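User: My collaborator sent over this chain with a note saying "see what the structure looks like." That's all I know about it. Can you take a look?
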Amino acid sequence: MEAIQSFTIDHTHLKPGIYISREDKGFTTYDLRITEPNKEPAMSPGSIHSLEHLMATWFRNSAVKEDVVYVGPMGCLTGMYIIMTGHYTVEDMRSLTVECLEWILTREEVPATTPQTCGNYLLHDLPMCKWESRRYLERLKTDFHCEYTKLVVETGEKMIFADA
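Assistant: Without extra context I'll predict from the sequence alone. Here is the result:
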């Protein structure tokens, strides 16, 4: 089997920042890495769920809304994925994300948190979401990272790097 591209990233050297995870078929997947994997605690399920609702709401109502395909959490709870069409650099995404996080910090409630609008409406934590957003915002402004450190992944007889 071929290696999944995201499994070829050296997570022991991955810092909070914004990375291009993959580009293909007219889509770009951005890795918004909020916490430092395996060195800092992952986000709590309630805080990342609230962040998903807030980021999705902001991006789908922003100037780039026509290019937004998906906004959602990583399974490891260390960040978010945003899939876009169009051409956006990591600097473009950094500016958009900063604007989004600043908006989140002004919110008093999380949108779509009723049984009718959310599959797990009780699993939200706005105060912790805002804490994580504030910390990530500061990191994006002062210590920006956007280059992955790759691993060599062997898959049987040969080394392969493949898209996920």
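A starting point for your reply to your collaborator: Strands lie at 17-24, 27-33, 68-73, 79-84, 154-155, 158-159.
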